[in-house]
Amino acid sequence: MALDSSQQAFVAFDRVQKSYDGEILVVKDLNLQIAKGEFVTMLGPSGSGKTTCLMMLAGFETATHGDILLDGKPINNIPPHKRGIGMVFQNYALFPHMTVGENLSFPLEVRNIGKSEREKMVMDALDMVQMGEFAGRRPAQLSGGQQQRIALARALVFRPELVLMDEPLGALDKQLREHMQFEIKHLHEKLGVTVVYVTHDQSEALTMSDRVAVFDDGRIQQLAPPDDLYERPENAFVAQFIGENNTLNATVTAINGDTVDVDIDGGMKGTALKVNCDGVGSRTTLSLRPERVRLDHSGVNRTEGKVLELIYLGDHIRCRMAVSGHDDFIVKVPNAGGDHKHLVVGETTQISWEAVDCRALDA
Amino acid sequence: MSDATANGPVLAADGTPLKKSLQRSLRHKKFRALMLIAPLLAFVLVTFVAPIGAMLLRSVENQIVPDTLPRTVVALADWDATSGELPDEAAFAALAADLAEAFDNKTHVKLAIRLNYESPGMTSLFKKTGKAAARRFDPDQPYRQQFIDLRPEWGEVEIWQLLKTYSSRYTNGYFVNAIDMQKTPDGLVMKPDGQRVYMASMLRTLGLTLVITLLCLTIGYPIAFLLANLPMSKANLLMILVLLPFWTSLLVRTSAWKVLLQQQGVVNDVLVWLGVLADDSRLELINNQTGTIITMTHILLPFMILPLYSVMKGIPPYYVRAAKSLGATNWTAFWRVYFPQSIPGIGAGAILVFILSVGYYITPELVGGRSGKFISNWIADFVLKSPNWGLAAALGAILLALVMVLYVLYDKIVGIDNVKLG
Ligand SMILES: Nc1ncnc2c1ncn2[C@@H]1O[C@H](COP(=O)(O)OP(=O)(O)O)[C@@H](O)[C@H]1O
Ligand SMILES: [Mg+2]
């Protein structure tokens, strides 16, 4: 569903910058195209500017520079209430002095929709989130998960084409959060609405999104479908931020087409996939997923590791090793076939990995 | 393990029934709690309950007549006040004896003052008669004739009716007076038109207070809104401006308004200079209701702003944002989402301003003239200038009752739980 031209983009950020105080750019040169019906997540650590981007899209903050386009039209000068964008706030922002029904009725009333039709739309929206019986309750009489559903229903009841959600599940416990992830996902599929979702939880982003934009330092570090993000990170930040990752610092010694030869700090020599590194002599960060490391010498990069710690996690065993001077090298050993039986803390063991699994990224 | 036997009471470790031992330990706790609050309780009783109680008592107390004229009270007990005839000789004799004794004890002056509240002219009548009763009355002659010879008023039935009416130890006379009525042998009747002042003043007090409260709300609401929504530095500056009046003496502020509002004052001068007013039609802005309203609104404004501000500060900005994202215009978002959430602040501010204002004394006294006078000015007059503490107490009690009634009404309509002071 990725886009190749801005022609078909439903939402587009075009070289957008934002500064609150005139000194620091909170958002630096943001370019992002979102297709109609797409579910795009902005993922990033706290303070990376995700909420700011969402607020600019919703109209509560103005872009310092650049254009935001909705359906091809610049919306910089359109006030929030005319943008017709549904929004789910982190703390739900359900109006405390109105019942659930009145909360949902509110966006329809301000659109001058007739009473009978309004009631029907409200009931439909409540049924959609399985909260049909709760129309008469006040928000304070609902649990967190129920409030979350109401907030969702309220953002959807007036049938917006675009819905923004800013960490909507942040206040829920883990189990409920996972459940709601699927519900939101299914609603998205059912309604075909475009969703821009903000979270700092990577598993949430990977579970729900068509594409994920990884934010850091006011920039999109990588914009890709979830599997690409995990398997083909383009820079050290993304590799580190998404999933578990072994980082090895190294220097490039030779370039052979798609691969590079590297001198890993600590003395080991190896081969890695050339992704995002400069020429011979430059520094690079090697990224290697813990589950891609083998406990034998069948791969092209071979070395020894000294076992420092073993943690039993049921389906797999996490083994921390010292490899080529790096003390925090993690290997995940599946708990099958007794692969791990020979691992003893303090002993050394053979390890290896393939060049394609080891990505040479920016230093 | 369990102390419960099949059907007997549960026993504590020492064999006493558990209930008893629980009660004993609770009693101990309660006693300790009571001792802890005892000083506070005593303080409240001495400084709050006792004075108010004493004041309320004064509004019905009438010991002085039966104490000073014990024999007369007894003699008048059988007299039919509606008969239109003077009481018999025995009553005159009793009064002569009472007054003679009172004159010797110097208590007849107090009695004279007390009765003068009810009917003007009593002071001189009783002073004179008291002296005569002690010095000149001849016990062998009929007293009635001697009384009438001394002062012809004693031949009038009304005075005797008055004495009989006020012969009991407690009276509702002050309250009757306070609601512009008077007691006659035929029951309660309204006072003559020209003398009905207290109820009119009470109504005016309520009316002015209402106007002041509404003005405070109208002016205070936008200020509180700004305070709660401006960036920190500007809000702090504004807050200082709001609090500034608190740091200036009330008298200074009131006098400042006098300077501003008088006919040759700053406001009038400016209006004349601007050509809005002709020099000979300067506005009367002070020493009348207008003066009271302007000055009191200014003085009480912070009491409206502060509770409003504290409530508004607690309304998170995302509600209005949510409303706008749902399609509401600025006004709709304010009116349907922000305003309802600020109502507890309106309630708190309004009730605070109203209660402070309804009992205000010094400002109406200074800038109110005749038409801007509050009921508390009457009360103060009766305490300080022409002492009639009974009437002052009765007016005060009515004011207190009125405020409490309004409070209850307010609770019924708005709900006191909806009020938030901080
Ligand atoms: N209203 C504001 N005024 C000034 N700075 C702000 C404001 N909102 C956010 N910021 C700053 O902008 C940066 C990005 O914030 P935000 O967009 O909320 O990040 P995120 O949602 O990714 O956690 C932060 O450094 C934050 O301090
Ligand atoms: Mg945020």
Describe this structure in words.
The complex is a heterodimer of chains A (363) and B (422). Chain A has 363 residues and is α+β, with helices and mostly antiparallel strands. Chain A folds into two domains: 11-236, P-loop containing nucleotide triphosphate hydrolases (Rossmann fold, 3-Layer(aba) Sandwich), CATH 3.40.50.300; 244-361, RNA polymerase II/Efflux pump adaptor protein, barrel-sandwich hybrid domain (OB fold (Dihydrolipoamide Acetyltransferase, E2P)). Chain A has eight helices and 19 strands. Chain A has a six-stranded mixed β-sheet, sandwiched between helices. In chain A, helix 2 (100-109) runs parallel beside helix 4 (144-156). The longest helix of chain A has 18 residues, at 174-191. The two termini of chain A are 31 Å apart. Chain B is an all-alpha fold and 422 residues long. Chain B has three domains: 3-58, no CATH class; 64-171, no CATH class; 198-418, MetI-like fold, CATH 1.10.3720. Chain B has helices spanning 18-58, 64-68, 70-76, 89-105, 108-118, 122-135, 143-150, 157-165, 173-178, 198-229, 232-243, 250-261, 266-274, 289-313, 318-325, 330-358, 362-367, 375-384, 389-413; strands at residues 181-184, 187-190. A two-stranded antiparallel sheet of chain B has the order 1-2. In chain B, helix 4 (89-105) crosses helix 6 and helix 5 runs antiparallel to helix 6. The model of chain B is unreliable at 1-5 (pLDDT under 50). The A-B interface holds A 58-60, 79-87, 89, 91, 93, 95-97, 106-107, 110-111, 154-155, 158 and B 316, 318-319, 321-330, 332-333, 336-337, 340-341. Bound molecules: adenosine-5'-diphosphate and magnesium ion.
